[in-house]
Batch of 2 targets.
Target 1
Amino acid sequence: MDEQTDGGAAGRHTPVLLQRCLDLLAPALAVPDAVMVDSTLGMGGHTEGVLRAFEHVRVVGIDRDPQALALASERLAPFGDRFTGVHAVYDEITDVLEDLGIPAVQGVLMDLGVSSLQLDEAERGFAYAHDAPLDMRMDPTTGPTAADVLNTYEERDIARVLRVYGEERFASRIARGIVRRRERAPLTRTSELVEIVRAGVPAATRRTGGHPAKRTFQALRIEVNGELAALERAVPASIEALAVGGRIVVESYQSLEDRIVKRALAAGATSSAPPDLPVEPATHTPYLRLLTRGAEEADAEELARNPRSQSVRLRAAERLRPTPDHLRTPRRAA
């Protein structure tokens, strides 16, 4: 993270690949009365960039973290009714827009992963470098904590979470260590978890590849917040929210997120007709156009300005036509 001195949202957050996001969204946001959804508002950096660059655009900012929403709303107050903040998870975009009476939008921006605020607030338990309660909830008002997961899951389920969501090679050893430790007393602190991970990862591995607890903390954060399940729903729902000509830009920070985004965008950009048909029916032509060649990464200038961009993978697409009925994702029941 960048070293920041200003206590407000603007001083605590440098948005990743901001100019590239603005350039990709610009053609879609050029229409009169354009609306963009910032599905992961965070500290409001990307939204502020959009509101400054496009003086006619309205932004709906969604975030599940009440603290982030409050700080961003304060930051964006000078833009008046051009900004609307909503406390929700990004897979609820359809309901959010219905409640606001917005039938379709011209842009959707998603900046995934843990936010600057969550990393900087040590007591939230997201950072392995600081001792704190084992919480890790993006919305601290609801749901189970990381401590709940570690103290109640079966050993095999802890191992599965670490292996699948953290791609941790030593998941079984770490899970075994967690269960042994909790037999003496429930785990409550991040420092306890770091100690268990260090003991479970061989010394030779600990000397390479960064902090040994990085993958375990990532996995627990994803599990606690249901991040990948929400993202699986959110990307198709966000595409459905786009008007024809609208654009979606997504920034991912780890391979599991990027894989979900890649799959959803590629599905829309690929013909759904059987390959042996001599003529492609109009109902099977692609409804998305990819705007990036693969996933774009940060260049040296961006990395120097904002270290958080080191792992970013950016993908974008434009809606060409409505999604054909046979490819629509059924809406989840309320």
Target 2
Amino acid sequence: MELVNRTEVSEFFLKGFSGYPALEHLLFPLCSAMYLVTLLGNTAIVAVSVLDVHLHTPMYFFLGNLSILDICYTSTFVPLMLVHLLSAQKTISFLGCAMQMCLSLSTGSTECLLLAIMAYDRYLAVCRPLRYPVLMTHRLCLLLAGAAWVLCFFKSVTETVIAMRLPFCGHRVVNHFICEILAVLKLACGDASVNEVFLWVGAILLLPVPLAFICLSYMLILATILRVPSTAGRHKAFSTCSAHLAVVLLFYGTIIFMYMKPRSKEAHISDEVSTVLYAVVTPMLNPVIYSLRNKEVKEAARKVWGRRWTSR
């Protein structure tokens, strides 16, 4: 019987903001603009980091990874969300839902680990400046970034497979604008206890643990900065680290509200607003925060742009 129920599911209906037509009309131009800024801004950071040899450092290697993650993350659902905002037919196939769930979980989880890795990189750069080139080698950068990508991908595949193998009974209406795993699990009529255990373990490992590590790193960074005799040196260190900290607070604040709050069978509009904040707004702000507050990035962008026009 379970197999029959499962094979009958061919598509889901993404309810999204369909109960708020005025909000849909407002969100379409806003999300379109934010998605465009996300694509252009993060692509520019990746291009500048690759083309300017002065930015071939661990900090900009991880920043490039973060930009690629933001592009991939938003692209897993924003294009379809924009189509659904203008359409009455808000459906997604079973396979499309599974792929969207897996890719969004994977890229979102990887960003959690990458932000912790970036905090560790800043800790070594500020607190261990003399040993920094020896400790944060190119090989270690590749190992840390690669491990984050691979581990989170396999974790997300496992969670998605377990979730989508559950029997789905009754209606197929997902109370969200994406195939968010918590929203899809509410439609399952089988035992979802295994899924809940996986999600809670994953949420604890990817949210409080990295956040605690980030907070510890920045406490040590702050203590080191305050001992710097030069005012200019303190200002430069604060400027570099505050940009990263702003991204961390915005990203973790909204995602912890989403995944660490008590489970509820009822859907709330606040869940979807929270998703918009950490899944659309944060990827847009990342390049803005890092580029506008970073003289090295702005100078590298001017050089790359200047070489491009000179070559013409």
